[in-house]
Amino acid sequence: MKVMDDNLRNEAVRWQGKLFKRSVRRQTRLRKIKELINSTTNQTCLEITAGDGMISTGLREGGGRWKTLVLSEATKAALNWFVEDQVEVFPGVSIHEPDGTFDLVVIVDALERIRDDYAFIKECHRVLKPEGRLVLTTARKIVCLGVCPLRSMLGLSWRAKGLERPGYTSGELFEVLKDGFDVPETESYSTCCVEVPGLLCEAAANKLVHEPYNMPGENAGTEEFYHYAKLNAFAMAAYPLMWLLGKLEEQILFFLPGHNLIAKTKRRVWRVRKQPVLIDGRSIAEAAINTKIGTAAPF
Known about the structure:
Elements: H1 6-21, H2 24-37, E1 44-49, H3 53-59, E2 65-70, H4 73-79, E3 87-89, E4 102-108, H5 117-127, E5 128-139, H6 147-153, H7 170-177, E6 181-182, E7 186-189, H8 192-209, H9 222-251, E8 260-267, H10 284-289
Parallel strand pairs: 1-2, 1-4, 2-3, 4-5
Antiparallel strand pairs: 5-8, 6-8, 7-8
């Protein structure tokens, strides 16, 4: 790990804090997660993240002992600016910790980046204590004529970001979790009225900095801070509109589907839940589709 100058670190975190305060989408994500995890005082917590250091910092405000796992060395370098506790790169499946180590596992926008998501969730289950909790946020797979083509045009599609999948529907997320966790419900957040202008701002910011603007590189210095100053001026100009759209979404347009999912689960004994099938090999759902209502015969 590179030894960082304290003044350099403080300057990077200061500018990132300013940018975070002008980002409605990032603030909403952190608020939703914190509402579900509540206080983490005296708890041992594991964060698995795509690399937003300000969210990592915000999670630690609840107290407890934290460890962070990331999927690449570049993400580790970015996180090292923000957190002083342990940050490790892991291969995307195996978590090198003993069984029952953690009270809480938080997955922040990382599940869609992991190829074998089922095996990874099984590992999260293994390292949790029997009464442990898993909280995760991920992209919601949604067909939207406005946002999906826009992401591709701006170079922000899931493939361009190197993700393994575009996200999950509520049903797909339940399928990944159901064998080891009780999932009372999933909640969607961040509708198109915030996502569309947010994507435009994100694309402009990434183009200016030539890398994800919320992930300072290992050698970030004066040039990056100059870019952050310009980004902050742009964000200050856009923030009143984004704030208004956020309030409109919260108070009036809350019924619209969100573009992100968040779920709070509780660990239980791992048991594979197999879908029941009939003697002829059909599932119950297939049999119901091919049977007339009010009859017991498939004709």
